[in-house]
Amino acid sequence: MFESIKRYSTFIDRTNPLTKIVAAICLFIAVVLIHDPNHLFHLSLWMLLLFLVMSGIELKYQALLIAVTVLTGLVSSAYMILYGEGDTTLFEFGLVHITEESIVRGLHITMRGLTLSFFGSLIIFTTRLTDVFYSMMQQAKVKPKYAYSFMASIRMLPVIVNEFITLRRARKVRRSLISRKHIGGLRGFTSTVVILLSQSIRRAHRLAVAMESKGFDDGARTYYRQTRFSGYDVCFIALIAVGLIASYYSGQWITPFGTSDAR
Amino acid sequence: MEVVNMALQFRGAHDPLFTDMNLQIEKGEKVLIVGPSGSGKSTLLNILSGLMPRVIDALLEADHMDLPDGGAVVFQDPDSQFTMPTIGEELAFIMENNQVHIDDMTSNALSALEAVGLRKPLETQISSLSGGMKQKLAIASALLQKADTFFLDEPTSMLDENTACSLWEMIQEVWEERTVVIVEHRVEHVWFRVDRIILLNDEGCIVASATPSEMLSDNREALDALGVWHPHSWQNAPRFTKSTDNGAPLLQINDLSINRVGSELLSVDDLHIPKGQWITLEGENGSGKSSFMMAVMKLMQTRGEVIFEDRPIRKTKQFQGALYPVFQNPELQFITNSVFDEVFINLEMHHDESAAEKKTGQVLSRMGLSHIKRLHPLEISTGQKRRLSVATALGGIPQIIFLDEPTFGLDARHTFKLLELIHELVEDGTTIIMITHDKEIKERYPSRRLKIHNGMLEEVGGGV
Fold first, then answer.
1. Number of other residues whose CB lies within 10 A of the CB of residue B52
2. Which residues pair with B198 in a beta bridge?
3. In whole angstroms, what is the distance from residue A242 CA to residue A249 CA?
4. What is the ipTM of this complex?
5. What does pLDDT average to over chain B?
6. Looking only at Cα atoms, what is the longest distance across chain B?
7. Nearest partner of B302 among B259, B241, B243, judged by Cα
8. Is A228 in CB contact (< 8 Å) with chain B?
9. Which of A110, B215, B342, B352 has a 20 to 30 A CA-CA distance from B1?
10. What Cα–Cα distance (Å) separates residue B323 from each residue in B69, B260, B298?
11. CB contact set of B378 (below 8 Å; sequence gap of 6+)
12. CB neighbours of B159 closer than 8 A, spacing ≥ 6?
C-alpha cells in the first residue's frame, strides 16, 4: 500500500505480522505500567529512532508524521496541564491552573501516546495488509473463509467512499430545487444509508458469487505468500526488549524530570 | 451440455421465470444468448454454469440436466469480481483454491497474463487498471481455472467501443477447443464470431436458435420486435432533422482548468453553449469527461470562469437547477421512497399541491413511468432508472441537461426511446450535453460534437 513512499526495506518488513501484533499488545501494557516519566522519555526516544531508521519511508513523510503526532500528543494532554491539580503553582488565571505536577503528568501522557504512535507507524509502514491475513491463516489457523472475506471487504472500501462522494454531489445539485426536509436531518441520513447499503449489499453478493465460481471454499488450499516465524522475529522482539531495558537504566542516569512518579 | 424440461422460479416470485426450457449445447460450440432486459439471459447462464441454485438461491426443476462441473465465469462488473488487491495475489487466489504448488504459481500467472495480453508486473494494484485491463485479468483468471467451458456474462458492457472490440479479438484467440456460452447485449463485435445464437423473448422462452447469418436473415422481425441489439439495429433508429440554428447564449466557460493528483487533466480555453443544442462529448476512458461535467456544475475545485446567463457562477446552488446532471449511476441521485415522490418533490415548491400532482403525472407519463409510480426507485429496471433521473431534472425545468453515458446498458428499444425523448427536449429549447462512446449516436444525432484530446477540449470538425 505504501510502496510509492518507501525508500528501502529492512528486516522488520520480513518480520511476521503476528509477532508485530503481539509485540504491540505487550508494549501497550508495558507503557501503561510505566509511571516514571524519565523511563518513558527514553523509551519514546528509542521508538522515534526505530521509526526513523527502520520504517524506510521518505524523509518528508517521516517529518510530517512526527509533526502531526507530537502536535496531537500535546493537544491531548493540554487539558491535564491547564486544569490539573498540584501544589507547586506556576501560573494561575481564572480556571487555568498550571502546576509543576500537572505539567509532568500531561507530558507523561503525551510520551505514552508518542511511544505507541511511533511504534504503530513503524509497523504500519513495514507490513503489507495482505500478509497480516496470510499469516493469520497460516500461523494462527484462522479459517480462510474469514480471512479472504476481510481482504475482499477492504477492496470494497474505496468504492463505497466514491459512491458517497457522488451521492453528496447529487444532493448538492438537487438541494436548491427541493424542500430541505427531504435531505436534511434523519430523513436525509436514512435515505443515504439505504442507498449506500443497497449498493454495497448487491456488490458483496456479486463478489461472493464470483469467489465461489472461482472454486473458493473453506477446505484445503495452498498459499501464494508463505509467512513463517524466523530469526527476524527474534531480532524484532530483541529490539523492543532492548529498548525497554535500556530506557529503564538510562532513565536513572539522565533524568529530565525531577520526579520518578507521575501519578 | 443439456437441459430438458427445466423450470425455474425465484423464491417469493409469483410466476416462474422459465418453464419447459430445453437447451442443448455441443462440446466446443460457441453460443451467444440474446434477449430483451428481464428475459432471464443472465439467470440462464447462472444455471448452466452451476451457480444457480448452488450459490444463488432459486427453485429449479428439470427432467434431465447435464452440466459441466467447474466452468469458469467472467462477470460483467470488473469491480465486483476480484478478491485481492494486486494482480499476482488475485491470480494466486484461484490457484490456491485448486491447491497448485507455490513453486508453479508465478510462472502459471505470468503465462496466463501473456495469453490475454496484459503485460503488467504481478505487484500491480488492480484498482490502478482500466476497465478493459480488468476484464483481461478476469479472462486470465478463467484460463487459470483450467475449465473446459467458459461462461461470459456481458464481459464488455462496461467498456468503450475500441476496448470491447479488442477484448473480443483476444477472447477468440484463447477460447480454442473450449465450449463458450456468452450473454451479451452489445453484440456488434461478437455476433459473427460465434457458431450459434439463441434468442429469448420477454417471457423467457427460446424463440429462435440459428447461425449468426441465418438469425439475421430469418429472424430479423423477432429481433427488432423484442428490441434486441443486432448488427443492423441502427437501421431502425429514429431519424430527426438536425437543428442548425443557434439559440441565445446560455453558458460560457473561460480558461477552465481541472487538476487531478497535482497535474492538469483538462483545460478549456473558451466554450460557448447556446440554447437548444444537442451536443455530444467524447474522449477516451479517463480523459476527464465526467470531471468536466462536475467542474462546470461547480461540484469540484477548479480554476477558471463559468458564466451562466451573464452571471458568474461560484457555487452549485446558483444554477438553481437550470443546469442539471444525470449521473452514470442514477441510483445515487434518488432521495425518496417512490418514483412518484422523486418527481413530486421538485414540483411541490413551485406549485400548489393539486397542480404539482397533476404536473408530476404528466412528467411521468411523458417518460413512460406512470405504471410504476408507486414502486421504490431502487427496484425498477436500469432503463427506467435512467428515465427517472431525467424526469427529476424536468421537474425543475432545466435549460441544460448533462447526461453521462445515458444509453449505457440499455437495449435497442429503450435506447431509441431515450433518443426520441432527448430530441423532444432539444426541440423544446433545452440544451443537451451528452457524454457518449457510441459511434452511431455521435454520427447521427448531435448538432455539435466536442472531444477531449490530449487534455484539451476540442470541437470535432472546426475550432472551438
1. 20
2. B33, B209
3. 11
4. 0.86
5. 88
6. 74
7. B259
8. no
9. B215
10. 53, 24, 11
11. A194, A195, A198, B331, B334
12. B131, B132, B135, B167
- The DSSP code for B86 is B
Q: Write out chain A residues lying below 8 Å of B324, CB-based.
A: 173
Does the distance separating the beta carbons of A182 and B336 come in below 8 Å?
yes
Rounded CA separation A209/A202 (Å): 11
> Residue B269 is placed in which grid cell?
480555453
Distance (Å, whole) CA B210 – CA B198: 7
What's the gap in Å between the CA of A8 and the closest CA on chain B? 17
What is the full DSSP assignment across B213-282? HHHHHHSHHHHHHHT---TTGGGGS---PPP----SEEEEEEEEEEEETTEEEEEEEEEEEETT-EEEEE
Q: Find, among A57, A127, A33, A77, the residue nearest to A66 by Cα.
A: A57
CB within 8 Å of B31: residues ≥ 6 apart: B25, B180, B181, B182, B194, B195, B196, B197, B198
Q: Which residue among A155, A173, A175 sits closest to B85, beta carbon to beta carbon?
A: A155
The β-bridge partners of A93 are A96
Query: Are B62 and B112 within 8 A, CB to CB?
Result: no
For residue B345, what are the β-bridge partners?
Answer: none
Kindly determine whether residue B299 and residue A169, on different chains, have CB atoms separated by under 8 Å.
yes
Please say whether the dihedral angle defined by the alpha carbons of residues B425, B431, B436 and B438, taken in this order, is positive or negative. positive
Task: Provide the pLDDT confidence category of residue B462 given band limits of 50, 70 and 90.
Answer: low
Hey, what's the cell of B83?
478478491
Contact A179 B123 (CB under 8 A): no
Q: What values do phi and psi take at B429, rounded to 5?
A: 100, 5
- Which of A159, A160, A173, A207 has the most B C-beta neighbours within 10 Å, making it the best mutation to test the interface with B? A173
Residues on chain B touching A177 (C-beta within 8 angstroms): 320-321, 346, 349, 395-396
As a whole number, mean pLDDT of residues B445-460 equals: 89
| In the predicted structure, residue A186 carries a pLDDT above the cut 80 | yes
B83/A151 Cβ within 8 A: yes
Of A170, A32, A9, the C-alpha closest to B377 is A170
**B89-143 per-position pLDDT tens digit:** 999 999 999 999 999 999 999 999 999 999 999 999 898 888 889 999 999 999 9
Using only C-alpha atoms, what is the Rg of chain B? 24
Cell numbers at B175, concatenated: 477460447
A183 lies within 8 A of chain B by CB: yes
Q: Which of residues 78-107 of A touch B (CB under 8 A)?
A: none
Residue keyed to cell 446498458 = B409
Return the pLDDT at B395.
66
Cell 483450467 sits on residue: B146
CA distance B219 to B198: 11
Q: How many CB atoms lie within 10 A of CB A76?
A: 13
Judge contact between B93 and A214, C-beta under 8 A. Answer: yes
Distance CA B41, CA B64 (A): 20
**C-alpha span between A51 and B195 (Å, rounded):** 63
